[in-house]
Amino acid sequence: MSEASPVLQATGLHKSYRSGDRRIEVLSGVDLAIAPGESVAIRGESGAGKSTLLNLLAGLDAADAGELHWDGRRVTPATATELRNAYLGMVFQSFYLIPELTARDNVLMPRRIAGRINAAARSRAESLLDRVGLAERSHHLPMQLSGGERQRVALARALMNQPPLLLADEPTGNLDERTGDSVIELLLSLCLDTRTALILVTHNPSHATKTQRVLTLRSGKLHHG
Amino acid sequence: MPWYLYLALKQLFPSGRRFPFFTAISVLGVALGVGLLVVVTSVMGGFGYEIRRMIVETEGEVQIKSRGLIPDADTLVAAVEKVPGVEAATPYASGVVMIVHEGRPAYPAMRGLDLATVGRVVNLGHYIRLGSLDELDDDSVVLSSELAQTLGVTVGDRIEIYSPLMIERLRSDELFLPREVRVVGILEIGHQQLDSSMLYCTLRLAQDLYGLGPMVHGINVRAKTGVGEDDLAARVNASALPRGVQAFSWMDSFEEFLWVLNLEKGMIFFLLLFIVIVAAFSVMSSLLISVVRKTREIGLLGALGARARGVAACFCAQGILIGFFGTGAGLILGWFMLAVRNDVVLTIARLTQREEALRRFYQFSNLPAHTAPGDIVLIVGLTLVISLLAGLIPAWRAARLKPVEAFRNE
């Protein structure tokens, strides 16, 4: 693939749910292309379908219609799981750290799943923890960390396999304003440093404006601004 | 190490936690089942082993029997002793007699021993509790302990013996008086059936009582060390035995008894296996709760690119690991319980003031135990298989959980 080809390309994504006798169409033909290193914020009201869209873009859910490509590769339910480990990093509102693992082991988990644990991987995990300011806490369990620290560990984990694209679903939703701001600053700066494209789903307008492009999900479609 | 095994180990033994309660309880459940199985199979095996020892010590490893009588015992004994693997052989005569002491009758099985050769084949002297086998002659007998107790006989008392031959003689209007003999020994083998109804006398006395002349009923054979009983019986059969005479190993001779013993052992094993199965159900229910509790972690693993079969393997591995550690702990527990079994039994006997009864009924004041390697392999194998099965249902539930549903539920 050439340098300019998008890391993510979604074309005509449709998704609807059955509710009793009715079908509710949540997404009605979403088109989206993300260039390498680009940061995009997706905003929308509660219930607009932001999480549904993110699940489709992450290959966690199958669209009723439409196509999805990551770095030029067609994503289907059969290939999504394997491709996700290499092409995608994810950050969630609730951090989702594994409570039995230390911060360093949580960061190493994507590489462990890929079956490529070695000294270089350990060293990268340490350096990522250092980059997010948690070098001293690498052997701490999630329960010994604050909310902001947990989200920073989750951020380091999302970047462990050097994915070309990072999806963040309300990453500051469970944090206070000041901690949330610092996490967003860190997220954007890490993506910029590593040339990782970012899709940030957020309610916070000030966080959204820090990205290169802001899209709003309304009536099942993405709109600029 | 594959990630699912790593995560299974971490979930069972989390970093920074000294006492993983769920793991400890699950492992303990399996360990108790395995420990109990080891103890019971070893004790049952011990009884079987002791009984085998008693049979071999009182009958020899191989018995030569005839459909009728064996006419020339001395020649046959000499021929059998030439068979490779035979240490010694001794002839015997046997049958049922009636004995009477102070008006009290009993009907024991009589065994006539050739005093010249019996000592080289069977070790009856080992079981004499009162008196001496050396004093046995054609006018004396040795009685088994329970028989002596039933009749109220002790060493030095005199008893009368009636044989079926007397009934035959009475039919021909011959007057035949019972044989009066002295009791010179009380013998206790430890096998309830043998101890309740055995009378040992000289071969000559047995031949007289049954009118056998020089003929005998059979020959007991002692094997050389390291020679198997079945192998020896086959060798003796291959030698020139007279027509109608055949050699049997002690296992052939006691085939039904051994079958019953094995059946008992198998039944107890089967019943106790349910302890392991119940423990496995408890492991399965704990793992199912864990699947529900860890819904978001399962979703996360999918989001990180873990395949459903890897997630399943993680929960399956937890079942197997609990089985593995439970089996290890159970083996240690079982061997420890076996090591202290005699102290436990004696303490219970002492507390209930039944020490004498214990010795009287079981002969050995020690509880016998013999751990067969095959039993251990079976216990370990079955426990691991049951533990694997216990992990399968939670694994299946976890594998079915789609990441998007897991996040939605959370």
In a few lines, what is going on in this structure?
Chain A is of the alpha/beta class and 225 residues long. Chain A has helices at 50-57, 77-87, 103-113, 119-131, 147-158, 177-194, 205-208; strands at 8-19, 22-34, 39-43, 65-70, 73-74, 88-91, 165-169, 197-201, 213-218, 221-224.
List keywords for this structure.
heterodimer; A: 225 residues; alpha/beta; Rossmann fold; six-stranded mixed β-sheet; four-stranded antiparallel β-sheet; 10 strands; B: 410 residues; alpha+beta; 2 domains; twelve-stranded mixed β-sheet; 12 strands
CATH fold group of chain A:
Rossmann fold
Query: What structural category arises from helix and sheet content of chain A?
Result: alpha/beta
**Lateral arrangement of strands in the main beta sheet of chain A:** 6-7-8-3-9-10
Number of helices of chain B: 17
* Beta strand count of chain B: 12
* Helix-strand topology string of chain B: HHEHEEEEHEEHEHEHEHEHEHHHHHHHH
Shape of chain B: elongated
> What is the CATH architecture assignment of chain A?
3-Layer(aba) Sandwich
Q: Assign the structural class of chain B, choosing from mainly alpha, mainly beta, alpha/beta, alpha+beta, or little secondary structure.
A: alpha+beta
* Average pLDDT reading of chain A: 86
Q: What general outline of chain A do the C-alpha atoms trace?
A: globular
Please give the domain count of chain B. 2
Interface with most residues = A-B, 29 and 27 residues
